[in-house]
Amino acid sequence: MPPGTTIEKSYKLLTREYILKHTDSVNPFFFKLGADIVEPAKGTLSGNVKNTNGEGLPDVTIAASGPINKNTTTSPSGTYSLVDLPIGFYSVTANKPGYKLFSTNNIQIFDGQTTILNIILKKAPPATGSISGIVSESNTGVLIQNAYIFISNPSNNYGTFSRADGYYSITNVVTGIYNMTVSKEGYYTKNIPNITISSGYNTIKNIQLTKIPANPGNIKGTITIQSGNYSGITVYAYGTYNYSTTNILQNGSYQILNIQPGNYLVFAHKAGYSCVPASTNVIVYSGQDTYVNFSLIPNPYWPGDFDQDEDVDMNDYLELQANFGTQNLKYDLNNDGIVDGKDLVIFGANYGKTGRRP
Fold first, then answer.
1. Which of 6, 126, 182, 282 is the most buried (most CB within 10 A)?
2. What residues have CB less than 8 Å from 102, skipping those under 6 apart?
3. Is the pTM above the cut of 0.70?
């Protein structure tokens, strides 16, 4: 017997076997002494791997780590066997793509015996991503509420509605390639193919819908003018779209035709006159006429006396300058739809005038 060794009794009962233990090694090794044969003390780890439906799983990687590291893969029926494992305690894992990793510790291998470890693998949750964006009108940019966004592929489908601000979001979408359908009453349905959803990533997809044209409506009415004629009058309708007309008949009647249905602010404008009422809110309905009447009353103030203090001065100039380039009719002195240099010329001609016009 080599120096530094001892004989210890085996844990195996009802036998007359002994273990030779080399005590001066960092990693002691063991041998079984029986009659005249000396061999390492080893055992086997075996079992089967099944899914939650009880079906055997092939190609599962079984790895045991302990006194030594060893691995194998399951057979087509899900069985496995790791032989010639030195006795001791092992950690065992079972791994297969698409399934949760199985792991266990303290699996003991006995000398000359087979330890049975049967394993059930559960499906791993699929990788997911998300998609979000804004739904708006293609020609106006108006945000669309309650548009239905639907994405699908042969395996999965998801849907949601856009919020009041046009925003939509679909989360926990299984990764893959999807087709998108976006629909809203009054708009053409939009189909968008081949949208990729990636794991852990939010795909941004903004959508523009085209409105289905409605039968247009009309705005009609009569303008009554005091102390003047009907030349130089413009009637405006501002809303979903902007419209105007300068075609005022000598009896004061006017019409703005082929207006898209919606809400509009309507008013009349003539330089040197005040419109009464100043403006009117109306709803234009599909295929119908909406009537709005106005009166134009002479404005006693000089053109350019914007603050109506009976003095065309620097304060009025600063107001004009602040609105330069806009469509603010208060400062559009020549009634051409924009505040520009022409209005500045008219203002200059009246600069310094005080009191009211004769």
1. 182
2. 93, 94, 95, 119, 120, 121
3. no
What dihedral angle (degrees, nearest 10) is formed by the CA atoms of 140, 142, 148, 152?
A: 60
Residue 142 per-residue DSSP state: -
Q: Is 224 exposed, middle or buried (0-12, 13-18, 19+ CB in 10 A)?
A: exposed
pLDDT of residue 26: 41
Cβ within 8 Å of residue 10, ≥6 positions away: 17, 18, 19, 32, 111
**CATH T-level topology, domain 217-298:** Immunoglobulin-like (2.60.40)
DSSP 13: T
Can you tell me the distance from the alpha carbon of 87 to that of 312, in angstroms, rounded to the nearest whole number? 107
- List of the chain residues with pLDDT < 50: 1-2, 4-36
Query: 42-121: which CATH topology?
Result: Immunoglobulin-like (2.60.40)
Indicate the pairing of strand 42-51 with strand 79-86. Answer: antiparallel
